[in-house]
Amino acid sequence: MTQKRALAIHDISCIGRCSITVALPILSSVGVETAILPTAILSTHTAGFEGYTYLDMASEMPAISKHWKCLGEKFDAIYTGFLGSVEQIDIVAEVFDDFRSDDNLILVDPVMADSGKLYPVFTQDMAVQMRKLCCKADLIIPNLTEAAFLLDEPYVGGEHDERYIRELLKRLTGLGCSKTLLTGVSFVPGRLGAACYDAETDEFSYHDGDYVDRIFHGTGDVFGSGLLSALMNGFDLSGAMAVAVDYTRKCIEYTQLEGRPAHYGPCFEKATAFLLERLGIHWE
Ligand code: PXL
User: Fold this and answer.
1) Under a CB-based contact definition with an 8 Å cutoff, are residues 127 and 145 in contact?
2) Is the CB of 225 under 6 A from ligand 1?
3) What is the pLDDT of residues 216-230, one digit of tens each?
4) Residue 30 DSSP label
5) Cα 279 to ligand 1 centroid, rounded to whole Å
6) Which of 112, 139, 177, 226 is deepest in the core (most CB within 10 A)?
7) Closest Cα partner for 199 from 224, 223, 227, 171?
8) What would you report as the CA-atom Rg of the chain, rounded to the nearest whole angstrom?
9) Does residue 278 carry a pLDDT above 90?
10) Residue nearest to atom 2 of ligand 1 (CA)
11) Which of 14, 54, 55, 82 most suits a substitution to test ligand 1, by most atoms within 8 Å of the C-beta?
């Protein structure tokens, strides 16, 4: 089987495992050749470190992408996460137009908010503009806060009933993508997981694990990278979601064992063997 190729469009946070420093090693470890288009370069991510530096890569991104187009580069998947500024929505939309093929996957993680609030670097305009990317995607993977911003409705935290989540998923696919996956979903106290919906087949699926009552920064990127790893290794959406939920849970276990402050990000490195096992990959 020829090696699959992905393009990861995220920021480089030099310290504090998230974004590209998570997506690149995870996808590489499962055999996916991964190109990167950095959206910003930060000394650290923005949640938990004081005084971080921030370089918006918007002025360079079109030139990078244009060069690849001239070279005739192709990608089996394009995976977007944290964007450096709202101006990058149009730049990334153009990257989608330039590199979309009949059978590649466009995965949009509309990274902009958590726990009911937008990240401090973003304004409401990011939520409005992000809908443009969602309608060009095959699959979007918001958390519940991002889903509320995308649908312009109040965020409802805590546990939910299945009917509410099913309706939310259906309305999110109404943004224009055929598949939606919601993270951070809980139906009962003490459990946390994800739910997905495929509008083409009208199929709904849910998978959860034990809830750990602590915020671990960067777990969304671990989840998205684990999900894409599984999709690019032949899993369907519901199977890939189960792998990503369990893998993220495993990373959290290792992070707790390491005992470092949460803003240093999830200890995903030690969970690599777990991910490979679940994907049935045994490198010689
Ligand atoms: O994991 C989300 C994320 C990615 N990149 C940067 C961030 C955050 C969340 O705060 O600050 C720079």
Assistant:
1) no
2) no
3) 899 999 999 999 999
4) T
5) 27
6) 226
7) 171
8) 17
9) yes
10) 218
11) 82
